[in-house]
UniProtKB/TrEMBL annotation:
<dbReference type="InterPro" id="IPR015422">
    <property type="entry name" value="PyrdxlP-dep_Trfase_small"/>
</dbReference>
<feature type="domain" description="Molybdenum cofactor sulfurase middle">
    <location>
        <begin position="489"/>
        <end position="622"/>
    </location>
</feature>
<dbReference type="GO" id="GO:0043545">
    <property type="term" value="P:molybdopterin cofactor metabolic process"/>
</dbReference>
<dbReference type="InterPro" id="IPR005303">
    <property type="entry name" value="MOCOS_middle"/>
</dbReference>
<dbReference type="GO" id="GO:0008265">
    <property type="term" value="F:molybdenum cofactor sulfurtransferase activity"/>
</dbReference>
<feature type="domain" description="Aminotransferase class V">
    <location>
        <begin position="30"/>
        <end position="454"/>
    </location>
</feature>
<dbReference type="Pfam" id="PF03476">
    <property type="entry name" value="MOSC_N"/>
</dbReference>
<dbReference type="Pfam" id="PF00266">
    <property type="entry name" value="Aminotran_5"/>
</dbReference>
<dbReference type="InterPro" id="IPR015424">
    <property type="entry name" value="PyrdxlP-dep_Trfase"/>
</dbReference>
<dbReference type="InterPro" id="IPR015421">
    <property type="entry name" value="PyrdxlP-dep_Trfase_major"/>
</dbReference>
<protein>
    <recommendedName>
        <fullName>PLP-dependent transferase</fullName>
    </recommendedName>
</protein>
<dbReference type="InterPro" id="IPR000192">
    <property type="entry name" value="Aminotrans_V_dom"/>
</dbReference>
Length: 633
């Protein structure tokens, strides 16, 4: 490959070639969810396969050659992984864990076993996995950046400071997984200095969640005095593979783990369990006491190869940072520049401007139309999916960050919850306001073309070029409505099958409105035969191409598939479902098969006809789905 060709401002033009050769799975996709996970290069998978087929790796607990090979490699890779973060093995130990979350849980597992328990302070931009720690603490406080700075300059986050014995765990993300905002790495050492001051006798441990930062930036732990006590991260976010994480512990603080009560296989030198209950934890390295059970040997081997391949392709994390930083500025500026014809911005951006603030390659935003009305996230995500664009929308596991960005008060979030809003569902605007964000995140192999195509996508679908036309003033309206010409119904669309295309109610016909809504709206749904769950367009975007037509003369619902039908599949391009509710059409009810729709538990009646069910299964490529009818319809 030779040295990377830097085009300008840190952008590596060679990435385009690497992308083509090494990431075949990205062909035809615009992958913008690197904060979720990053794709893995082909040569990593090829080399891994080769390593697995040439060597025999045993469980590292015996003298056999295969076992010894594993033991040796696991140890070498541990040191190499520490080096990746400039961490001296004399000062730090690295514990292999499943992911960043598992690393957090190990720390909490130890701290809650301290005789006094612990108090917990976390920054408001924390990932859900850090927020959950508060449930194990005696008391907890969530601080924003201003309160954080107050704390650093001497004010105290807890009212009652009586239990001076009880240590504090302070956790924060190095980079927010929601909007890419970065927080000073110096906080750990500042807090440590604070707690050594004569006025403050409580011990403070710091936990840095580096999961988002390390995916596109170097993390330098070369100074053990100023480093956080615990650092957690997930390797799949840097290399795409393996699914493995690390907890890096500053040895000076490793005593916290002596309080941990649980012990698992591999962590003890001796256990007595019949007449007496006694055990001796391993007394060597910390990781020997914390790695419960068999290590993920093959994943650890893959990590070694991942580091090799990453270095070969991208040289260093500094270079990755330069490249992604350049793209982030371009993305931010591109989205910011989009304006409707009336001058209003298209995007409300929550991320800091990467030009002026230290931040990761992430842009979090929402879209508004020319009148300032928020566009539904589910709609943006579905359209993006159809265009081969991979983005993340919603609450992105960052409750404090979202509430701050959107100005949501706790009562609003609770009210949204009571009205059926849940993490990970389609229900995304409540009371006219967004409940989540659109997150676009860039990574190592992102290119200028990805950025530009995404900005074009937003422009093409959401920028309004011409001012909206108001209805002509002489439309036939009830006399009482004459004075409010802005209120008129242009058309009514019902969605007879949940998540499929809509049906335009023909003009001039009466349409009944019932207490549950417009008649024939969401009368049917498609349910997964295995789980009984209603299928949604998010998982099955082809549902958008299933077009229902209500034919009252024939008494049937006709469903046409508007996509390409393979001539081999012998699939009819449409199917009819009777409108009548003759019980003979339905399959016998299976117990325990209920679906969740908009937060409500329902048991749909499913059709017995193989013809009907096969039509939908074949179109969507789900071997086991049923057409069902809502019982309350
Ligand atoms: C991804 C992420 C996590 C969680 O990582 P897991 O691999 O799911 O444990 C935690 N914090 C941040 C900032 C993240 O980006």
């Amino acid at each position: 490959m030779g040295s990377l060709n830097i085009q300008h401002n840190g952008y590596h033009a060679d990435v385009e070639k690497i992308r083509e050769e090494e990431y075949p799975m990205l062909k035809d996709s615009i992958y913008l969810d690197h904060a979720g996970t990053t794709p893995y290069p082909k040569s990593l998978m090829d080399r891994f396969a080769q390593e697995m087929t040439t060597n025999l790796f045993g469980n590292p607990h015996s003298a056999s050659a295969s076992s010894q090979l594993s033991t040796q490699r696991i140890q070498d890779i541990r040191l190499r992984a520490l080096q990746f973060f400039n961490a001296d093995p004399a000062d730090f130990d690295l514990v292999y864990v499943a992911n960043a979350t598992a690393g957090i849980k190990l720390v909490v597992d130890a701290m809650r076993c301290l005789p006094t328990g612990f108090d917990y302070v976390y920054h408001q931009a924390s990932h859900t996995s850090l927020v959950g720690v508060r449930e194990e603490a005696q008391s907890s406080a969530c601080l924003d950046t201003r309160q954080m700075e107050d704390w650093l300059s001497g004010s105290y986050p807890f009212d009652n400071n009586e239990d001076a014995e009880r240590p504090i765990l302070f956790a924060y993300p190095a980079q927010s997984n929601m909007d890419g905002r970065r927080f000073p790495l110096s906080w750990s050492s500042q807090i440590r200095r604070q707690c050594q001051s004569p006025t403050n006798k409580r011990k403070i441990y710091t936990l840095l969640d580096a999961a988002a930062l390390v995916s596109s930036s170097p993390l330098d732990l070369s100074n053990a005095q100023t480093a956080p006590d615990f650092v957690v991260l997930s390797f799949y976010k840097i290399f795409g593979f393996p699914n493995l994480g690390a907890l890096i512990v500053r040895k000076e603080s490793q005593d916290v783990f002596s309080s941990r009560r649980y012990f698992g296989g591999g962590t003890v030198d001796m256990v007595v369990c019949l007449k007496e209950q006694w055990h001796a934890p391993k007394d060597g390295f910390l990781h020997e006491r914390l790695e419960d059970g068999t290590l993920p040997i093959h994943s650890i081997i893959a990590l070694d190869i991942a580091m090799d391949v990453h270095a070969k392709l991208f040289e260093s994390m500094e270079r990755v940072a330069g490249h992604t930083g350049f793209l982030a500025r371009r993305l931010y500026q591109g989205l910011k520049a989009l304006r409707h014809a009336n001058g209003e911005p298209v995007c409300a951006i929550y991320s800091p401007d990467p030009e002026t603030e230290d931040s990761g390659p992430v842009v979090a935003f929402n879209i508004r139309n020319a009148q300032g009305i928020w566009i539904s996230l589910a709609e943006v995500e579905k359209l993006a999916t159809l265009k081969g664009i991979h983005i993340r929308t919603g609450g992105v596991c960052n409750p404090g960050g979202i509430a701050t960005a959107l100005g949501l008060e706790p009562w609003e979030m609770k009210q949204n919850f009571s009205s059926g809003f849940r993490c990970g569902t389609d229900n995304d605007t409540m009371g006219g306001n967004p409940t989540g964000i659109i997150r676009v995140s860039l990574g190592t192999m992102s290119t200028i073309a990805d950025v530009d195509r995404f900005v074009q996508f937003v422009e093409e679908f959401y920028r309004e070029d011409t001012p909206p036309t108001l209805p002509p003033p002489e439309t036939k309206l009830e006399p009482s409505l004459r004075n409010t010409p802005e209120l008129f119904i242009k058309s009514i669309v019902v969605y007879p099958i949940k998540s499929c295309a809509g049906f335009h109610v023909p003009p001039g016909i009466d349409w009944e409105v019932r207490s549950e809504g417009l008649v024939w709206d969401r009368e049917w749904c498609l349910v997964h035969r295995g789980s009984g769950q209603a299928l949604s367009q998010k998982r099955y975007p082809l549902m958008a191409l299933l077009r229902p037509n209500l034919d009252f003369t024939r008494g049937e619902l006709q469903v046409t598939y508007a996509g390409d039908v393979s001539p081999l599949s012998r699939l009819p391009s449409s199917i009819s479902v009777p409108l009548s509710k003759n019980p003979k059409m339905y399959a016998p009810k299976k117990s325990g098969m209920s679906s969740r729709v908009c937060g409500e538990e329902i048991t749909p009646q499913t059709y017995a006809s193989a013809q009907i069910n096969d039509f939908f299964s074949t179109v969507l490529g789900v071997p086991t789905n049923d057409a069902g009818r809502f019982p309350f319809a």
